Amino acid sequence: MSSENDINEKVNEKEVDIHAGTENLFTDDAVDPVYREKARILNDAIQDIGMGRYQWGLFVVTGFGWLADNLWPIVTGLILPPVLNEFAFRGPFLKLGQNIGLLVGAVFWGVGSDVWGRKISFNITLLITAIFAIAAGGSPNSIALCSFAAVWSIGVGGNLPVDSAIFLEFVPASHQYLLTVLSIWWAFGQLLGSLIAWPLIGNFSCVTTPPATCSRSTNQGWRYFLFTMGGLMFVLWAIRFFVFKLYESPKYLMGRGRDETAVEVVHRVAELNGTTSNLTLEDLVKAGSLRANEVRHWSCKKFVRDEEAGVLNEFTHRSLGYAFIGLAFPLYNAFVTYYLATRGTDFGDGSLYITYRNVRFEIKQVILSVIGVPGALLAGYMVELPLLGRRGTLAISTTLTGAFILASTTARTSNALLGWNCAYSFTSNVMYGVLYAITPELFPTKDRGTGNAIVAAANRVFGIMAPIIALYADLTTSVPIFIAGAIFVVSGFIALLLPFESRGRASM
Length: 508
Hints:
- The chain is mainly alpha-helical.
- It has helices at 2-21, 33-49, 53-87, 92-115, 118-136, 142-157, 159-170, 178-181, 184-203, 221-243, 250-255, 259-272, 281-286, 292-305, 311-347, 352-361, 367-370, 372-382, 389-408, 414-442, 445-471, 479-495.
- Helix 5 (118-136) runs antiparallel to helix 10 (221-243), helix 9 (184-203) runs antiparallel to helix 10 (221-243) and helix 19 (389-408) runs antiparallel to helix 22 (479-495).
- The protein is globular, with a radius of gyration of 24 Å.
């Protein structure tokens, strides 16, 4: 009898742990009670299945979106000097075209994923990037290149709003921190760009100071680079489309009134994980009926009106933080190549090859990319600490990112500059890991794509401002670096104002 009681106690403890891990993020009046109960049932079912083969596969294929999101803004920065030598145009127009495309992509694919589902957006974004990146490699002039950059960025811009939603909606609540660790793919994207661009651009480009003519035949490096990166996107898209079978999100299906299909998906995932699920259609039916054609209208209206639950405050603060960071990051990337070139001249090593080496391209400098890996892992650990959580980790990492950018302007040697950039690379990977994790956690599944899109739009709108500033600024000064650093510091303090802490709570 005592043994039986011990077993019952252990079972009860397990149930408590499961429900503690799937505690709802929102207060009782913030979300439709029928939806909330059904989401809880599905969260418990996914928690019972556990973190298995399907989720780890999803960690890889959604990681491709993180890789692309970091890779392509870096690509435009890397090809800019040789492109300017060949086409002799105002460089910020290339970044402007890219950021306009990122804005369109974030809004279109994010909102679209709530309308037609996650699968379509997931399966198309990398293909668009691949096609138009390869086409850009054959650009005959700057207008064509900027246009292709805008279109390939429409694909890039849709990755994070969609991929973060997909991963979050399949991962058990106990493993939601892995959404933060996904930023490790950012580091991989940076590393790939670094290693591939070094020999191609460094060896097949005109020198930094334009000669009388810089012909296409002597400046093929940036074209080879775009062909290679576009080909890589084709490979990643093929893995997503032909190798990994993506199921539609169960909570998305439930929110559209397709309970039976949602249950079927849960059982398929359980089968792939080598386990079973006790979830039945009756479990969802008992929670009540949810009419799919009324869900979005009601929930969006409730989302905007519900200040009592703190959702509107969270949305406002998150959008403001995204907007500032959206300006600071492209502003820094837009100017860093020019800045390093002038600093390189001060150090006596201002050639094109050496300048690229100081950015990321010598084996020693690849540390700038590799160091993002421990940054992502540290972010996943820090967000689960009770004293820090998402807010504390975001505030600390964002402030430190700005501080290291500001400190980099004091460098007087190449090694000192490398040291500050390593510190920036590390803390920025922590920052972005947390930022792109807590945002989808805020929104219910039925509105997550739209919510991600709106917040990302704030980021991209301010990102458009960076090249506009560059058009009217002195590119050879360190002033833009000071501005970018200051924006990061301010954004760190804004992070402390976020009213929600999602640590230990399941996404809805």
